[in-house]
Write the structure tokens for this entry.
Amino acid sequence: MVVGEMPSSVDLLVIGGGPGGYVAAIAAAQLGRSVVLVDSNGEAGLGGVCVNVGCIPSKALIELAHATHSITDWAARGMKISAQPSVDMKDFQTWKNEVVTGLNGGVRQLLKTAGVEVRQGFFRFTRKDQGVLEFGEAPPTHIQFNNAIIATGSRPTMIAELPHDGSRILDSSDVLSLEVLPKTIAIVGAGYIGVELGTALAQLGSTVFMIEAADRILPALPATLVAPVARRLAEIGVEVRTKTTVVSDDGKCLTVTTDGVASQIAVDYVVVAIGRTPNTDDLGLEVIGVKPNARGILEVGADLLVTPKIAAIGDITPGPALAHKASAEAHVAAEVLSGHAARFDPTAIPAVIFSDPEIAMTGLTLEEASAAGYSAQFAMFPMAASGRAFTLGDKAGFAQLVHTTDGVVLGAQIVGPRASEYIAEVTLAIEMGASLQDLADTIHPHPSMSETLPEAARVGLGFPIHVSPKRQRNNSEGK
Amino acid sequence: MSEKTMIEAIRECLTQEMQEDSRVVVIGEDVGVLGGVFRATDGLQAKFGKDRVVDMPLAEGVIVGSGIGLAISGLRPVIELQFLGFGHQAFHQIGQQVARLRYRSQGRHSLPLVIRSPFGGGVRTPELHSDAFEAFYTHTPGLKVVAPATAYDAKGLLAEAMACDDPVLFLEPLKGYRLTKDEVPDERYRVPLGKLRIAQVGTDVTLIAWSAAVNVAQRAADELAAQGISVEVLDLRSLNPLDIPGIKESVSKTGRVAILHEAPLTGGFGSELVATIQQECFYDLQCPIIRISSPDTPYPLGGVEDLYIPDVDRVVSEVGALARTSA
Amino acid sequence: MSQIVDYKLADVGEGIAEAEVIEWLVAVGDLVSEDQPVIVVETDKSQIEIPAPVSGKVIELCVVAGDVLAVGSSLMKIEASGEVSNDISAHASPATPSPIAVTTNDKSDSPSTPGSRATNVRPLASPSTRRLAASLGVVLEDVLGSGPNGQITFEDIQAASATAEPTTSPKVTPIVFGPGVTVIPLRGLRRQIAASMSQALTIPHILEFKEIDATALLALRSDLTKDFEAQGQKLSVTPFLMRACVLALAKHKTFNARFDSEAAEIAQFENVNLGFATATDDGLIVPVIQNAQNLSVKELAQETDNLVALAKSRKASLAQLSGGTFTLTNFGSFGTWLGTPIIHAPEVAIAGFGRITEKVLAVDGIPTVRMVLPIVVAADHRVNDGAHLGAFVSEIADLLLRPLSLLENK
């Protein structure tokens, strides 16, 4: 028996091992700090939702689905296969687990090399410089820290009408662990997670219903970007029900209402993918005098501090809940808490959606730029004019640059094959204050999808090569 | 040399001294089979046997009284009092017997006895476990009072106390047992009693502390440094004997003194320091000495002890104000 | 169809150009009825509760406590539940939708002006430049970019940092939050006092002091006290001091004036609107006795008691707090000797009276213990010179030495 809370001393404590937490831990260690990282899943949790049950597994599934689906298209290009391709989800899970384990192990090794100690348990603040780490039946351990970085991330938001059971009513993470391919599945919520999962499952052969309360899929995105994706979903047979909400589920049938009219959808599985909830509810934040806002978010400024000694990063802070935003904040938090003058002050945060075709965005949309006070224009180049898109057999979509009348690049929206791979180029251009002329005069390799960027820049400059200048004017006027 | 917590350093010291000197015995509640409520004596009974590591009944007066007998008989007992708050059960034994035996026997008997006891709060213990009662014992002539703040000092001072032919009350910071971690040599060494440690060199203010408060003082000094205030932190290490020359040297340099302790204000050891400093360094002082302490109330429930024990913010605020007081 | 009423801060009174929000009495979503108080604002003079113009639902609060608003600023938006009368519509304009983005295809040939940009547009600077700015404490919004399209370069930041340094004030030791430190935001009356006192420091003050034998004054007050108290009126020395000032001002009109530096004019008044400094829990307030020249000592006493009560409860109306031409302050109640009063701009003089205490005076060549009243007057040297001031102070002193004169026909 030990009487009282006997704390051990930690210089810098990182709470959470996701893409925010582990990057913060390594960055702080590089700055000379002695770092302990705690995660509720211990070493198995390193990499967070992203590596273990989120971005990485979902991209593995999407690649499989895309290959399976497109293989039939290859027949016209000369590839002859004797049988209809089929998918064994058990084999997929084995492979996916290797991918996840490999990346998780990589993070583990990086932390070890950096001298970061990893401990398992749920952490809760008990004083402004101390907290308790609890794990199962083990005696709780108390940790006093000089600094702490809260990087607890988020979890799928569930709804009362569809209580999560992990067998029929699933969250987005459960879907990625299925060992059988669903015959029929309903996806509640057509945000980016719902669209990615729905597309992949439909391409693999499931009958997919997509249920969205708004009047279209991906309601947070500009309509022009969504149209090619909506067309493709229809082509692969996804039944999209917009303006529709879930009423109940009886274990076999999902009852929904559309504009007040009730209907039933018989499905094997229901996935709830309506968003994510920040993990700020059970951290003892009241002890350190911090109160999340109504959405559970911790309001932070550019220094990311919630108290003079504690920073918050990732999905629990304002802004998009994206892994790369958390990692970027991680560097800032580690520096600020180590006495450096750093600010989280990005000009552009890119976002990618692995729909079909892919959508990638960075910086401002035309509407956002105008609202921010810019005299903004856009310049668009269609994938149908890209040689590389031809060879990929996928000509849907466009690359669009938003710029000032002086030509300074403010944003980009790309819909089309491999959009996720070259959106970073525009992000760099924005951060560096590059102009359309800079993009146009930078030599891009041919043939590649990245060529669509200098082409769009030339459209904006009024001297396009691969589309007619008239086309640009028509587009502008039509806008 | 390796990093050790204070509890590890104390255990290592006890082990090594028991190995070197077969007259050393350890007695106390739960020190044997359990290895001490804080694991200070973990493994000692297995190593040295039940005759040298003895579990005692829940009766502090009996434990200390037994220690007196063992010491007179030629052994060198180390007593563990589970919490200093329980010490009052043995108050007569400690105050009137232990401390006076050499005097009463006209020097015929010495009493080579060490009483180890954790004291102070900060770890949410229930009532009676958290008091900082050191001033009762500094008010007891004949008893040395030692209160280390680092693991290094804990090992070195305990070895010195065990080598001393007179009784020593060895006070261990409850909160510091696992929180305090520093480089501790693996071999035996001693730290002399009555020599303070300059925990941090500074020029503007002398901040005097001991035991767990030294850590608070150092963290406050770090924050004050960021405000351009240079604080010299003195870790007294032993309250009796007191290193008066060491205090004088620092005060003559800074002219401003703050005393930090966990015990309540009135009659705390800080009062003794104020009296001594004004007598020894009156003409070096640029402004009145301040004491930063707990309030004159009983030790509160764990939930509010952060408001009771002076914390870094309070020390920064009060020492900052002291540094800005005009001479 | 319901109408959105954009409720604006109307002109609340003479000369008041702005008001500070003290607190909201309603929240977004609340239903309010017409004339229900919705917000408390404080002007230079007083706290005012402003009522809702219409009944309806609060859909937006445009300001927060502590904001200082110009007349005409939007306070709140209310979705009116009923018909909106023409009268209110005139005050309140329907909320306009946020401006719709317009794209232009106007490709101007004129070269872009370096550094020119819309006010809320993000400065153009690369991440490494931003990092440098953060480390040097340079605010990008304050830097004119020399690069293409007004882009801020490394060199711009270094130059801004170099020029900024000599002008920055010495680094203030940051306030340490913690026990023993209470941080109080400068709000309400305190903020107004801070502003008006800072402004008063631009006035070149001259001061004249005099001590007088107050034996006769105290004897008179003592004689009158019983009579006053029979009529339920307490009598302090203050009304006598007021009356002395009023009578002295009648002879020295240059002290009963207001100074307008912008118009380069001095306005002299026939009437005396006499302000008197009053300590309240919130801070100093100066109620004004209008047309004090018409009031007897007794009436001054009554009016003073009345206004002090209103001021202390912060209920005094704007009219009761403005339009002063001269101010009196009584240091006696502080238990100190005397102070140096500060002129209440735009007035040009202020009289202060200290504590009446026993002092040794030479009376007919013999040291004698007498009750002595210290007097001070501060005057605006732009308006009056030392000689004028001396004469004015002497006039007040003479009146107080012959206190019966204060009871003469008003």
Summary: Residues 57 and 97 of chain A are 8 Å apart (CA to CA). The longest strand of chain A covers residues 141-150. Chain A touches chain B through 15 residues (CB under 8 Å).
